[in-house]
Amino acid sequence: MWIATKSPKLGVAVYNWKGDVRSGLPLEIGETVQILEENGGWCRGFSTTNRSAWGIFPACVVSIRPCTVKGSGATAIAELKDDPLVREIACVLRDWARLWKRLYVERETYRFSAVAKVMRELLSGRRALLAGTLTQDQTRALRLKLVAKLDWGNRSTLPGKYHNLTV
């Protein structure tokens, strides 16, 4: 039996899911969904990028994130309260993925490996920030390290300048 959530919840997909059940909502990693109802290990809701895409999905493919709710009742809309650094890392990784692919196609092995290493470090750091299990000192140190990695990548991955890729 589907039970309506007391207030809208937001989840971010942590796994790809094809939506291969009746009324399934396909999800890609990083996609945000507003959850309106729950039933056991399943959720019903819609994609925040395409509000007409409704459906069900396993609760295990999303991570519930803190959010603010605007409006009330059926018109309530939830918005993520994410850390700006976490959001920036996600955006940068999407951009760098194009560079990474180009390096692979051009067989730039060393540069490909350097970008891959930094991308893995950013993903790992982002995961640690999202988990919220670090002390304040650890969080501060990690944030500084991640900002330095972003700075390196932004200087090194600008068009025509990726020849300086050293980690």
TrEMBL record:
- UniProt keyword DNA-binding present: no
Name the domain of life: Eukaryota
Q: Which InterPro entries match?
A: DOCK (IPR026791), DOCK_N (IPR032376), DOCK_N_sub1 (IPR042455), SH3-like_dom_sf (IPR036028), SH3_domain (IPR001452)
List the SMART domains: SH3
Tell me yes or no: is Transmembrane among this UniProt entry's keywords: no
Looking up SUPFAM superfamilies in the UniProt record yields: SH3-domain
Q: Which Pfam families match?
A: DOCK_N, SH3_2
Key words of the record: SH3 domain
Q: Domain SH3 spans what residues?
A: 6-67
Please give the name of this protein: SH3 domain-containing protein
Q: What species does this protein belong to?
A: Iphiclides podalirius (scarce swallowtail)
